[in-house]
Design a protein that fits this description.
CATH class: Alpha Beta
Largest sheet: 8 strands, parallel, barrel
Structural class: alpha/beta
Strand order of the largest sheet: 1-2-3-4-5-6-7-8
CATH topology: TIM Barrel
Number of domains: 1
CATH architecture: Alpha-Beta Barrel
Number of strands: 8
Radius of gyration: 20 Å
Number of helices: 11
Strand content: 15-25%
Helix content: 40-55%
Length: about 220
């Protein structure tokens, strides 16, 4: 499963992309607003850091506006994936962009049928919001499994991008459910390697090496 960082903070992206474990980035107007920087300039810097997909969300809600903004952001870098909402105008724009060979991330997906419609419109990625689905008492991970089944049944190539990820368990469950990608906050990314037994085991190895005067010649 690919891992995307869900942030518009260039410094964070630069720091964690250096690990070699970051496959892409997703952004949105809310994340961009938190940085206090020009959105376009941030996207240029992100594209210079990340060789994989960089989702840039349009601000317009009408078809014509989405087309203008989507084409504008697509010129920033070849990695740009135009992010549109799962509305009628959004899917019309998705179809138009995908027909031109541009990558599209259809966001704000909350049902399997919505995901099917986005795939039919040629979406590169579909972004089901698992955390928000859980928030209203429904099964966010069940949504991932249902979309996976529909896509596999009909051979849709659209990648399932698990979004609204709240914790490490979401990442684990999304991987088991067959999501192609998880886009996660930096706070969750930093926790992916954490386990108390790893820390305990490493401490024991270090202590034993010191007791036995074990060294490695360099």
């Amino acid at each position: 499963m690919k891992i995307f960082l869900d942030t518009a903070d260039v410094a964070e992206i630069r720091e964690y992309a250096a690990s070699g474990l970051v496959d892409g980035v997703t952004t949105n107007p809310s994340l961009a607003a938190k940085t206090g920087r020009d959105y376009g300039e941030s996207l240029k810097e992100i594209c210079a850091i990340i060789p994989g997909s960089v989702s840039a969300e349009v601000l317009a809600t009408d078809f014509d506006g989405m087309m203008k903004e989507g084409k504008a952001v697509s010129k920033i870098g070849k990695q740009i994936t135009i992010k549109v909402p799962l509305t009628w105008d959004g899917l019309k724009a998705c179809k138009a962009f995908s027909s031109e060979g541009l990558q599209v991330n259809v966001t704000l997906c909350f049902s399997p049928v919505q995901a099917m419609m986005a795939a039919k419109a040629g979406a590169t990625f579909i972004s089901p919001f698992i955390g928000r689905v859980d928030d209203i008492g429904e099964d966010g991970m069940g949504l991932i499994r249902d979309i996976r089944a529909i896509y596999d049944n009909y051979g849709f190539k659209t990648e399932i991008l698990a979004a609204s990820v709240r914790h490490v368990q979401h990442v684990r469950e999304a991987a088991l459910a067959g999501a192609d990608v998880s886009t996660i906050p930096v706070s969750v990314f930093k926790q992916l390697l954490s386990h108390p037994l790893t820390d305990k085991g490493l401490a024991a190895f270090v202590a034993d090496a010191k007791k036995g005067n074990v060294t490695i010649k360099t």
